[in-house]
From TrEMBL:
<dbReference type="Pfam" id="PF01551">
    <property type="entry name" value="Peptidase_M23"/>
</dbReference>
<dbReference type="InterPro" id="IPR036779">
    <property type="entry name" value="LysM_dom_sf"/>
</dbReference>
<dbReference type="InterPro" id="IPR011055">
    <property type="entry name" value="Dup_hybrid_motif"/>
</dbReference>
<protein>
    <submittedName>
        <fullName>M23 family metallopeptidase</fullName>
    </submittedName>
</protein>
<dbReference type="InterPro" id="IPR050570">
    <property type="entry name" value="Cell_wall_metabolism_enzyme"/>
</dbReference>
<dbReference type="GO" id="GO:0004222">
    <property type="term" value="F:metalloendopeptidase activity"/>
</dbReference>
<dbReference type="InterPro" id="IPR016047">
    <property type="entry name" value="M23ase_b-sheet_dom"/>
</dbReference>
<dbReference type="InterPro" id="IPR018392">
    <property type="entry name" value="LysM"/>
</dbReference>
<feature type="domain" description="LysM">
    <location>
        <begin position="266"/>
        <end position="310"/>
    </location>
</feature>
<dbReference type="Pfam" id="PF01476">
    <property type="entry name" value="LysM"/>
</dbReference>
<feature type="signal peptide">
    <location>
        <begin position="1"/>
        <end position="23"/>
    </location>
</feature>
<keyword id="KW-0732">Signal</keyword>
Amino acid sequence: MILKCIRTVALAALALVSVNVSGQDLLARQAPIDRKLKAVDSLALIRQIKAEKSVYPAYSLYPNWSNERVHAYGNTVNVPDSFRIDLTGFCMPTTHTQITSKCGPRWRRMHNGLDIKVYIGDTIRAAFDGRVRMVKYERRGYGKYVVIRHDNGLETIYGHLSKQIVKEDEYVKAGDPIGLGGNTGRSTGSHLHFETRFLGEVINPEFLFDFPKQDIVADNYLFVRGANRYDYQRKRLDVALKEAKAESVSSKDKATSQKQAGNSIRYHKIRKGDTLGRISRIYHVPIDRLCKMNGIKRNTVLRIGQVLRCS
């Protein structure tokens, strides 16, 4: 009876050890699988991020993609102090050149774009490559309008159209037709209302596009927060940039001349009232070094007309 009990206990202990060992083996076999799954998940996430970047232009700049409102950002976006916008690969939105209303205050309210004279039915084209964010109608404002977010970070708005010929989330190339000129919404005659914005901040389209010449103003535009709407702001900015550049060049030249001067031998002719301390301050040379270069001591009497080496 005792032997039977001992045998039963031994078998039970052996079974527990076997279960523990097999469990450890299972965990060991499972670990590489878990690592593989994590790697797969990471790759899937990277693919998803890349896909979103390709789907939504300027993905890294904008906080969201909304089809609800033109001015959808407010304080939700961090506008940089400056950003250089690439304007190459453009297409003029219309071949018409007459500007009927400029960007700025108008009729006791702010006019945030340019009005260009077009006729009902004229083709309106995308200014740059991008994706259509909005195709909407606003009776007391833009009328029938299209908003496109571009790969360079700009958003363009085309208002008062008679017809929209693109759909929301559709990708368009620069020069693709997006609508027809019209007189819808708050409008007193057929024209294109054209806006350019960066992260919701208005940029005067005349700083980017030269409609009379049917060309861009430059290959790129330096966006500076708070200085993109009025001519006087840009003029002040241009002056400040030129002054900063001139000051930088001047400082560089000064540093170079000082360096050159520092590398050359300089002498000082003793005048009335000169002391070793005064000469030391003028040439930024320690008194002990002055003494060593000229073979004199601190208490040596300086004679008027005497020449000392200072570097």
